[in-house]
């Protein structure tokens, strides 16, 4: 029987502390596509995979830096490790039911050097990799639509390890995880804004909110 996929290689506090101390200043930055926002009242789940752990942990630390820049306290960031990218949809669904987050960030990495995507002649099977990635992405989209909880797709799909290292801040001055963290903060705030506007609209349209004027015949 398969064991639980919910495990963590580091405590939440340790991960947040590490995200604030590891790497150079340049490696803490994203592409600049998003600005920091105030998401201090939001709760987040960050899922990451054990496979290619060095890459994924660097991406997670970038995401935590981004959420910290958005004033999200450590106790509002839940970090969950799963074995492989294929486990991300189930983990996302389960964490939404149990933890009720404002947004979920699913981080993983799929590379050509994985034997799962290499044919008998040692050539990269792009079709196989693309099919698996497509299935994972569709599952995550279905979950967020069915649960009304936004899920940020943070799955790196690259041919080679050096490209993944460049995208997580290990060899270049950019970390995709930082952008994904900011994206999660933005979409969580957007969801809250839409919900508040909908609630305000209902109050305005309700019969109790409209004033009643009675006229007496003289």
Automatic annotation (TrEMBL):
Its EC number is 2.5.1.78. Residues 18-29 have a biased composition (Polar residues). Residues 1-10 have a biased composition (Low complexity). InterPro entries: LS, LS/RS, LS/RS_sf. It holds the Pfam family DMRL_synthase. It catalyses: (2S)-2-hydroxy-3-oxobutyl phosphate + 5-amino-6-(D-ribitylamino)uracil = 6,7-dimethyl-8-(1-D-ribityl)lumazine + phosphate + 2 H2O + H(+). SUPFAM superfamilies: Lumazine synthase. It is an enzyme of class 2 (transferase). Pathway: Cofactor biosynthesis; riboflavin biosynthesis; riboflavin from 2-hydroxy-3-oxobutyl phosphate and 5-amino-6-(D-ribitylamino)uracil: step 1/2. Catalyzes the formation of 6,7-dimethyl-8-ribityllumazine by condensation of 5-amino-6-(D-ribitylamino)uracil with 3,4-dihydroxy-2-butanone 4-phosphate. This is the penultimate step in the biosynthesis of riboflavin. This is 6,7-dimethyl-8-ribityllumazine synthase. One of its GO terms (cellular component) is riboflavin synthase complex. Residues 1-29 are annotated as: Disordered. Belongs to the DMRL synthase family. Keywords: Riboflavin biosynthesis, Transferase. One of its GO terms (molecular function) is 6,7-dimethyl-8-ribityllumazine synthase activity. GO terms for biological process: riboflavin biosynthetic process.
């Amino acid at each position: 029987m398969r064991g639980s996929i919910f495990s963590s290689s580091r405590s939440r506090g340790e991960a947040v502390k590490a995200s604030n101390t590891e790497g150079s200043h340049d490696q803490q930055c994203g592409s600049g596509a998003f600005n920091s926002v105030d998401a201090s009242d939001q709760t987040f789940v960050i899922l990451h995979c054990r496979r290619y752990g060095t890459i994924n942990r660097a991406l997670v630390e970038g995401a935590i830096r981004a959420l910290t820049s958005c004033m999200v306290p450590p106790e509002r960031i839940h970090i969950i490790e799963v074995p492989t990218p294929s486990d991300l949809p189930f983990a996302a669904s389960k964490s939404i039911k149990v933890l009720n987050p404002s947004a979920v960030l699913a981080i993983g990495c799929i590379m050509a050097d994985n034997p799962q995507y290499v044919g008998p002649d040692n050539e990269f099977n792009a079709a196989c990799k693309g099919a698996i990635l497509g299935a994972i992405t569709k599952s995550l989209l279905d979950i967020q639509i069915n649960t009304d909880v936004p899920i940020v797709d943070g799955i790196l799909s690259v041919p080679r390890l050096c490209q993944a290292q460049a995208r997580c801040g290990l060899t270049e001055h950019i970390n995709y995880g930082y952008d994904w963290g900011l994206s999660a903060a933005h979409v969580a705030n957007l969801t809250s804004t839409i919900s508040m506007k909908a609630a305000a609209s209902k109050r305005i349209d309700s019969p109790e909110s409209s004033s009643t004027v009675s006229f007496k015949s003289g």
